[in-house]
């Protein structure tokens, strides 16, 4: 597998080895030793799947406390995926990395704890999978406004379909500083 490190510390793009044959394909979507060597030191404790239609945008979500690292990928369809560094004290605070994840490119994206994460669906539907390094805690869950101008994210959609929670999300500058995770080098 090929691992590419982002300029934002901790963010990884992983291209697993895909074994194609007449039947279709096979790939290992996570393997403890290899992904640890790639730089993911955290342990995964929860696995999630969501399905969404074209134009849906989920995000930008984070938990604090109980910050979750997420290994994300797509089983069907195509999404534009974004990780925003919201770690207080981080040299890259407020910066983001984006990537296209699809059933064809088989890419995985590692969003470390302390980031806000979101995606929008480019295909008719998309089945989105992710492993998390901490459990879901509804009371710690928060939503950062997807189109906060301060983030400068070049989303490929202009009027996405949002959840009620995400349509009421706060801009980064509107969060109480204590709500944001702390950078741990
Ligand atoms: C995320 C999550 C939600 N739920 C429940 C709560 C709610 O009733 C329902 C839908 O929740 P949400 O609207 O928060 O789902 P969704 O908008 O898909 O939330 C997800 O978005 C992406 C971008 C992420 O990064 C994830 O970590 C997660 O925050 O599912 C769980 O039971 N466990 C979970 O881990």
CATH homologous superfamily?
Jelly Rolls
Given the C-alpha coordinates, what overall shape results?
A: globular
Q: Architecture, CATH level 2?
A: Sandwich
Instruction: State the secondary-structure class.
Output: mainly beta
Query: How far do the termini sit from each other?
Result: 26 Å
Indicate the multimeric state: single chain
Count of the domains: 1
Helix content: under 10%
Quick check: average pLDDT? 97
Pathway: Carbohydrate biosynthesis; dTDP-L-rhamnose biosynthesis
Family: Belongs to the dTDP-4-dehydrorhamnose 3,5-epimerase family.
InterPro entries: RmlC-like (IPR000888), RmlC-like_jellyroll (IPR014710), RmlC_Cupin_sf (IPR011051)
Subunit structure: Homodimer.
Detailed description of the structure:
This is dTDP-4-dehydrorhamnose 3,5-epimerase. Catalyzes the epimerization of the C3' and C5'positions of dTDP-6-deoxy-D-xylo-4-hexulose, forming dTDP-6-deoxy-L-lyxo-4-hexulose. This protein is mostly beta strands. It has a single domain, classed as Sandwich (Jelly Rolls). It has helices at residues 32-38, 164-167, and strands spanning 2-5, 12-15, 18-21, 24-27, 46-53, 57-63, 70-76, 78-85, 96-102, 108-111, 115-121, 125-132, 141-143. A hairpin with a 6-residue loop joins β1 (2-5) and β2. It is globular. The protein starts with a strand and ends in an 18-residue tail after the last helix. The mean pLDDT is 97. The structure holds dtdp-4-keto-L-rhamnose (TDO). Dtdp-4-keto-L-rhamnose binds at residues 48, 50, 58-59, 61, 70, 117-119, 136, 163.
């Amino acid at each position: 597998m090929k691992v590419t490190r982002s300029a934002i510390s901790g963010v990884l793009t992983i291209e697993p080895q895909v074994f194609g044959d007449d039947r279709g394909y096979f790939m290992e979507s996570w393997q403890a030793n290899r992904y640890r060597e790639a730089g993911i030191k955290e342990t995964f404790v929860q696995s999630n799947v969501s399905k969404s239609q074209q134009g849906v945008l989920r995000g930008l979500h984070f938990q604090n406390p109980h910050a979750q690292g997420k290994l994300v990928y797509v089983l069907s369809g195509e999404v534009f995926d974004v990780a925003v560094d919201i770690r207080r004290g981080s040299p890259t605070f407020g910066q983001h990395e984006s990537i296209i994840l699809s059933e064809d490119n088989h890419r995985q994206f590692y969003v470390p704890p302390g980031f806000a994460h979101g995606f929008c669906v480019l295909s008719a539907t998309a089945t989105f999978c992710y492993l998390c390094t901490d459990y879901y805690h509804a009371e710690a869950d928060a939503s950062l406004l997807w189109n906060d101008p301060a983030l400068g994210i070049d989303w490929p959609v202009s009027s996405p379909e949002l959840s009620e929670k995400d349509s009421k999300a706060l801009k980064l500058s509107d969060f109480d500083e204590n709500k944001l995770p702390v950078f741990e080098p």
